[in-house]
Amino acid sequence: MAEVLSQGEIDALLSAISTGEMDADELKKEETEKKVKVYDFKRALRFSKDQIRSLSRIHENFARLLTTYFSAQLRTYVQIAVTSVDQLPYEEFIRSIPKMTILNVFEPYPLEGRLLMEVNPNIAYAMLDRLLGGKGVSINKVENLTEIETRIMSQLFQRTLDSFQEAWSSIIELDPVMEDIEVNPQFLQMVSPNETVVVISLSTTISETSGMINICLPHVVLEEILPKLSIHYWMQEKKKERIPGELEAIEMNVRKAPLLIQAELGQSELSIHEFLHLGVGDVIELGQMINEPLNVTVGGERKYLAQPGKMKNRIAIQVTDVIEEAANDE
Predict the structure, then answer these.
(1) pLDDT of residue 142
(2) What whole-number distance in Å separates Cα of residue 270 and Cα of residue 153?
(3) Residue ranges per domain, the chain?
């Protein structure tokens, strides 16, 4: 972005040119000269700005879903927000995180490869303390996790993959599966050291404890869906092609849907005393004449009129009329 000069700086430049301290021709010559920009091939920028913005939008949604999930699980104040989205070599990312931390490795089927969610130990132990009935105090003992603690954390972070799947649903239907939990980044080699990765940093606050959750997305894993991350894909409206026989299948399923149909013989009012003393042989008088049609309801709505009778020694009704008011009711 070009530097914006203040009015005082502009006046100083004009004064210097008018007094001859600066030569306008030399300034123009400097502007036309080719400027050399240093490019580090080890830090290749393989994601476009559009793709970075798309990844940022996806994980802003992921952060909101995580906030809801952790708030419900931990029953305390939780705030998660995206603070940065950067692309850098995998080796640089590994060097930037703590030597001992919580590393959740998962496979994002149907994509090939592995993704990583690094949770700062302060955050992870605050979560564990809340799950075990504490106040959310963080005690960093990541070097000697017990089997029970590992199991609890594994189940907690396994369920975060549902939120990850939902956040990515507008791009691709993922079925992420937790593969392992590691604590030492040096033992984790997902991709080559020079491979470009996108790191989404989520600022996380749980009760009075703060820390970072980092999502590491290698370029080689996202390569096949990168075209879907461009702004043109987001803005493009695609008409879904109708699958042959889809309409018929829907109609068949609708026809098989069960409906509750009831024929009402009449209504009567009884006191609690009368109801409690009903016995075999008692007669209940209904508020409907024997020659009046019965109301037939479908799904609780009056739909037909009918008359009672028998068919093959079974009680039955015969529909005599359709109640149009119910049919046209909106």
Answers:
(1) 63
(2) 60
(3) 43-235, 260-266+288-330
